[in-house]
Write a structure and sequence with these properties.
Strand order of the largest sheet: 2-3-4-5-6-7
Largest sheet: 6 strands, parallel
Number of helices: 17
Shape: globular
Mean pLDDT: 92
Distance between the termini: 64 Å
Low-confidence stretches: 1-8
Number of strands: 14
Structural class: alpha/beta
Radius of gyration: 23 Å
Strand content: 5-15%
């Protein structure tokens, strides 16, 4: 650990202000973190590992504010597949793809406002959401249902609605991942994606939602760890001055977006940046390029890491690799957002009321039901069934802890329902025939409900589903990812996401509780 620079130094305080570390714990905050907040650090990130209940989370954030009243407390609460508030039981609201499917901006605004009120009540002041990415590549492994859709105008209008709804509660929104992560087939958590499109396409597609969000007054924008050669052939967006300063900050009459708010890096430990530049090198290059706040904690931080990064930024200034004015400007933008959110907390109603079941209402309206041409009148399920879930590897942004699927909801409605999960590892070990045999053996004479997630991206899953439908044509299929593959099964239900309420909406349709139009049957 190095403490070569005194904590009272203005330069050091600026370096601390741009860091957004995380920590491990649910009831206590490490002493070092409270100390560094007092020394000038301004932001902290929280993840599912920090959350047990709303009351617990409110107590935890109160401890952070005891060290710095205007501390920015950030969380990744997109709703749907990516949730921190509901990490243990699944999200109470559908995600962006479901909201895009419903395509009612007022509904999106209401869902976002409800999320904002929940966050504010827990002491969260910055939400790293929504995703403004246009999911133009259906094989995208990391965006998918986190996007409102594949149409730039649809994504733009829902991004604006979400930003306005969330920020009406005093919680700052953060649209991501600039300049657009939707046309990638590589996960930037693991490697550096490359988007090979021309600038005309970028302006007509990727940049449309971000431009709309800037005009709507979004308070922060998160960068993408992607290479866009048409804008900068040498640096990923997070480290590119041409993208963060020359495009994002440039005036509109010069072809830029004219953005003046806070720019936040995506997590710097992601391999797309750290593998080449290291965490410290990435931090310096990101601030030099135009990033103001640095997300540095997908894994818990410690004091040694924070002081190492602080001193790396200070050293870069003193060695002429980072302009002191740029670091100070970044720190001031962080402090400005902290002041805005602190003022928003003062305006919160004492006991805010949410529209009842807004999440379930939205999930119901997102569902799309297709019947096979020869299906005729399909009988609602009224007795125990077998649920066969085909599970892909978890999205890195969502994590592995959040439950998903249909089994819990169908078991609630049809007691005695059985369920089993099947994975790519099972398919590799048993082969398609072995997986199919396991499903049929578990089902016995019960009707089968097959639950898939992005079946078009997973050959093993498509093969297993195809075999099941050949053996049991009466199988109902529920797609809880991006519904890119043609509908299959006696009944095909596309939920456009895998949150808890999406599962409930599908279960209601299968059992005749709702009719598939969002109305009670």
């Amino acid at each position: 650990m190095t403490t070569a620079v005194p904590a009272s130094d203005t330069l050091t305080r600026d370096a601390l202000a741009v860091l957004q570390p995380t920590f491990d714990g649910t009831t206590t905050v490490p002493g070092w973190l409270l100390r560094q907040l007092e020394n000038g650090m301004t932001g902290v990130g929280l993840f599912g590992r920090n959350v047990v209940s709303p009351e617990q989370l409110a107590g935890l954030t109160a401890l952070l504010r005891s060290a710095r009243p205007d501390v920015l407390v950030a969380v990744d609460e997109e709703g749907g597949d990516v949730t921190r508030l509901d990490v243990r039981e699944g999200s109470a609201v559908p995600g962006s793809h479901a909201l895009g499917s419903a395509d009612d901006p007022e509904l999106t605004r209401a869902v976002a406002a409800g999320t904002g009120r929940r966050l504010a009540a827990c002491g969260i002041t910055l939400n790293w959401a929504p995703s403004a990415d246009v999911n133009s590549d259906p094989d995208n492994p990391v965006i998918g249902v986190r996007s409102f859709g594949d149409d730039p105008q649809l994504v733009a209008r829902h991004t604006v609605a979400y930003v306005e709804g969330l920020q009406s509660t005093g919680v700052a929104a953060c649209v991501k991942h600039f300049p657009g992560h939707g046309n990638t087939s590589v996960d930037s958590h693991l490697d550096l994606p490359r988007i090979d499109v021309d600038t005309e396409t970028l302006h007509a597609r990727e940049l449309v939602p971000f431009r709309a969000a800037v005009e709507a007054g979004v308070r922060s924008i998160m960068t993408a760890h992607i290479l866009v050669p048409a804008l900068d052939p040498d640096h990923p967006a997070t480290l590119s001055r041409a993208i963060l300063t020359g495009l994002l900050r440039a005036p509109r009459d010069e072809g830029g977006l004219g953005y003046e708010g806070l720019v936040i890096s995506d997590a710097l430990e992601m391999k797309a940046v750290s593998r080449v530049h290291g965490l410290d090198g990435g931090a310096v290059l990101a601030v030099a390029a135009g990033a103001d706040a640095l997300c540095i904690g997908g894994t818990p931080s410690d004091e040694a890491e924070v002081l190492w990064l602080r001193d790396a930024l200070v050293a870069a200034v003193r060695e002429g690799r980072l302009a002191e004015e740029r670091l100070h400007d970044a720190a001031e933008r962080v402090r400005a957002l902290a002041r805005w959110t602190a003022a928003g907390r003062d305006r919160l109603p004492a006991d805010p009321e949410d529209a009842p079941d807004i999440g379930l209402t939205a999930a119901r309206r997102a569902v799309r039901v297709t019947h096979r041409d020869d299906a005729g009148s399909v009988r609602p399920l009224d007795r125990p069934v077998h649920v066969a879930s085909f599970s892909p590897v978890a999205n890195n942004a969502a994590g592995t802890d959040t439950p998903w699927g249909l089994a819990a909801e169908l078991t609630r409605l049809l007691p005695g329902t059985s369920a089993a999960g099947h994975t790519a590892a099972d398919a590799e070990r048993l082969g398609t025939e072995g997986v199919l045999a396991a499903v049929l053996d578990a089902a016995g004479d019960r009707e089968v409900v097959a639950v898939v997630r992005d079946v078009h991206r997973h050959p093993w899953m498509a093969a297993a589903l195809g075999g099941l439908l050949a053996a049991r044509p009466d199988t109902r299929v529920v797609e809880m990812g991006v519904p890119h593959a043609p509908p299959a099964g006696l009944v095909h239900i596309a939920t456009h996401g895998a949150s808890r309420v999406c599962g409930r909406a599908a279960a209601e349709i299968l059992t005749g509780r709702t009719d598939g139009t969002g109305e009670t049957a």
